[in-house]
């Protein structure tokens, strides 16, 4: 299985909503413990391998709760899903998505038939109606999309007709609306049948959230009797940022009856979390830093050469310039030598100590070798306040120069001397900079888009094909509807390969 296709779903329950049963997946193949929800429906049209593949990506978690509805105890099953995306470049994923939809419907209807109320929520990855899409006119086959056809079968339609005929039976009203054959209701549309521009997902690559150019693909579906009798509100929260999706929520009037003990699927009972899962308060307790520090020695890779090992083991040279070997080297087997951490005798000071200027008196003698003369003529920059305001510079016939301050003439700083006479290192650095600028070209200057007259954004083609890797310019504004003046215009220009 391709790791990139792995998903993940989690359901967090308060103590007041502790479930009586919990299960991973839709097929039942992942259930190896007691306390499962059960009711799997008819899976005859799927092979075992297909069922295993549909559950292998971690796209469903089911919890079953007990609720008190009008002094009557009833079961409520929550199916939390992350439905697959139909990748246009991978035709097999389109079929995988439809199979997941079919399996989800069979499981939800089987649980409903067994007597439990059912809520299906999560990222369904399909916008249902045209009102749920930012620009449905761009899709000629909008209503022919297989995902939308499935939603029409899975859902009851809800619209203004229901509000106009309050006395009519619920099932009779919705039978004339799109998606009249299903057993579930889109709770958002149940309470907001005509609200437009209500989206839950936006493209982060194009900044579409700024112009609300998105889709509504996150839902809370409930069986029609639960939606009619117990739901009091449902809405979206587009103001909450932090993801390319926004939260959705629903509120019920019935009260929850918590279980005294979570089901075995609860993470506190899973072997991989045994003894490791902590409460949130544990993260704010002061711990002993010594116990949390890693060991000071670790094994060096066996592939290193002997000289590299010695250098890593003892990076500091002795006074004679030769590298010293540790006494423990001879006792260690080949390829198993360990690093030694040497502590500096002088503790490191504060960060400000790195920015304090150093005062250096420069005395150059004619007897000094040229190499040492160059090194000694590069003192650190001296702050003007740390030297006298005036100085005399005198030179003797022997070639000695001395810097003396006597209060009669302005004193020249080290920075001024360096500017007058560039050092060989500075000249080398300058030539190196010129070389790399000639080899490595920066990004080309962006043109201005024709509509807004603003600098364009540089993009790169990542889709496989003849233009893979080519760069182009587009309007830098966020994506939006063509009627929105604040949205991106249709400017496009390829980057010349010669630039």
From TrEMBL:
Q: Where is this site: Transition state stabilizer?
A: 125
According to its UniProt record, where is this protein located? Nucleus; Cytoplasm; Mitochondrion
Composition bias (Polar residues) maps to 290-302, 341-351, 406-424
Q: Which cofactors must be present for this protein to function?
A: Mg(2+); Mn(2+)
Where are the residues of the annotated region Disordered?
Answer: 287-351, 365-447
Question: Where does it primarily localize?
Answer: nucleus
Ranges for domain GRF-type come to 449-498
Presence of the UniProt keyword Transit peptide in the record: no
Q: What class of enzyme is it?
A: hydrolase
Entry EC number(s): 3.1.-.-
Kindly list the GO molecular function terms attached to this UniProt entry. Answer: DNA binding; DNA-(apurinic or apyrimidinic site) endonuclease activity; double-stranded DNA 3'-5' DNA exonuclease activity; lyase activity; phosphoric diester hydrolase activity; zinc ion binding
Q: Where is this site: Interaction with DNA substrate?
A: 245
Record keyword Nuclease present: yes
Signal peptide region: none
Q: Which residues bind Mg(2+)?
A: 123, 125, 244-245
- Cellular component per GO? mitochondrion; nucleus
Q: What does this protein do?
A: Initiates repair of AP sites in DNA by catalyzing hydrolytic incision of the phosphodiester backbone immediately adjacent to the damage, generating a single-strand break with 5'-deoxyribose phosphate and 3'-hydroxyl ends.
Spell out the family assignment given in the record's similarity comment: Belongs to the DNA repair enzymes AP/ExoA family.
The name under which this protein is listed is DNA-(apurinic or apyrimidinic site) endonuclease
Organism, as annotated: Takifugu flavidus (sansaifugu)
What lineage does UniProt assign to this protein's organism?
A: Eukaryota, Metazoa, Chordata, Craniata, Vertebrata
């Amino acid at each position: 299985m391709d790791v990139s296709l792995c998903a993940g779903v989690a359901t967090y329950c308060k103590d007041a909503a502790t479930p009586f049963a919990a299960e991973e997946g839709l097929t039942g193949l992942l259930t190896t413990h007691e306390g499962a929800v059960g009711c799997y429906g008819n899976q005859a049209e799927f092979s075992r391998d297909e069922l295993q593949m549909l559950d292998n990506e971690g796209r469903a978690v089911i919890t079953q709760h007990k609720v008190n509805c009008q002094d009557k105890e009833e079961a409520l099953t929550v199916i939390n899903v992350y439905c697959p995306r139909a990748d246009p470049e991978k035709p097999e994923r389109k079929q995988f998505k439809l199979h997941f939809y079919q399996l989800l419907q069979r499981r939800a209807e089987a649980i409903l038939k067994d007597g439990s109320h059912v809520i299906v929520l999560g990222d369904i990855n399909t916008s249902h109606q045209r009102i749920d899409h930012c620009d449905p006119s761009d899709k000629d086959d909008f209503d022919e999309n297989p995902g939308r056809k499935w939603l029409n079968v899975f859902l009851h339609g809800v619209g203004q007709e229901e509000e106009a005929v309050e006395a009519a039976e619920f099932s009779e009203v919705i039978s004339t609306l799109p998606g009249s054959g299903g057993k579930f209701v889109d709770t958002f549309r149940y309470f907001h049948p005509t609200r437009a521009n209500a989206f839950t997902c936006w493209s982060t690559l194009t900044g579409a959230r700024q112009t609300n150019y998105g889709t509504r693909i996150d839902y809370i579906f409930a069986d029609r009797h639960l939606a009619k009798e117990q739901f009091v509100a449902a809405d979206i929260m587009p103001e909450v940022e932090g993801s390319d999706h926004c939260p959705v929520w629903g509120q019920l009037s019935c009260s929850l009856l918590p279980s005294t003990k979570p089901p075995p699927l609860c993470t506190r009972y899973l072997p991989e979390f045994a003894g490791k899962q902590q409460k949130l308060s544990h993260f704010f307790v002061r711990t002993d830093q010594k116990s949390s520090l890693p060991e000071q020695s670790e094994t060096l890779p066996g592939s290193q050469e002997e000289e590299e090992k010695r250098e890593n083991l003892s990076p500091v040279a002795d006074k004679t310039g030769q590298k010293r070997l540790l006494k423990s080297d001879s006792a260690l087997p080949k390829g198993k030598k360990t690093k030694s951490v040497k502590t500096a005798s002088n503790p490191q000071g504060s960060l400000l100590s790195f920015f304090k200027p150093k005062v250096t008196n420069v005395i150059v003698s004619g007897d000094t070798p040229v190499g040492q003369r160059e090194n000694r003529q590069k003192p650190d920059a001296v702050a003007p306040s740390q030297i006298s305001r005036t100085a005399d510079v005198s030179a003797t016939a022997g070639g000695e120069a001395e810097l003396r301050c006597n209060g009669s003439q302005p004193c020249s700083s080290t920075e001024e001397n360096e500017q007058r006479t560039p050092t060989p290192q500075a000249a080398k650095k300058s030539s190196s900079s010129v070389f790399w600028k000639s080899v490595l070209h920066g990004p080309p200057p962006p043109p201005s888009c024709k509509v807004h007259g603003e600098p364009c954004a540089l993009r790169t083609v990542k889709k496989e094909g003849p233009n893979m890797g080519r760069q182009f310019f587009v309007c830098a504004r966020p994506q939006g509807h063509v009627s929105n003046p604040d949205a991106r215009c249709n400017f496009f220009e390829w980057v010349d390969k010669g630039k």
